[in-house]
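Dear colleagues,

I hope this message finds you well. In preparation for our joint manuscript, I am sending the HIT domain-containing protein (Sphingomonas xanthus) sequence together with its predicted structure, so that both groups work from identical material. I would be grateful if you could confirm receipt.
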Amino acid sequence: MPIDAKQPYDGQNIFARILRGELPAKTVMESEHSLAFHDIQPLAPIHVLVIPKGEYVSWDDFTASASEAEICDFVRTIGEVARMTGADTQGYRILSNVGKRGGQEVPHLHVHVFGGQPLGPMLQR
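The corresponding structure tokens are as follows:
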């Protein structure tokens, strides 16, 4: 169910639990401020989630509150994941859903990296 990205951070969300080691994840890479791992229900041959290690609900929260180092690390991690997975060879899509109308389901900022097949139009009608 979509969440309200303006609510306070919920430390019991699935990504917070992954970061604390309470739930397993198949890690693609980890940096000082970010973690990338395979989605457990992939929608494309390449489907990796990239999350910041800090407690940020959404892009709005992250860009308003994160340090320059966290923002730089997160963006670079997304690019590195695309290269590491080979998504960059034929093209890929990065997607972050924000809030109820954006379809955000986990109250922790995350970016999907999709690739490995034609991805179709941006939005379905």
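For the figure legend, we might mention the following. The mean pLDDT is 95. Residues 14-115 form a domain with the HIT family, subunit A fold (CATH 3.30.428.10).

With kind regards,
E.M.
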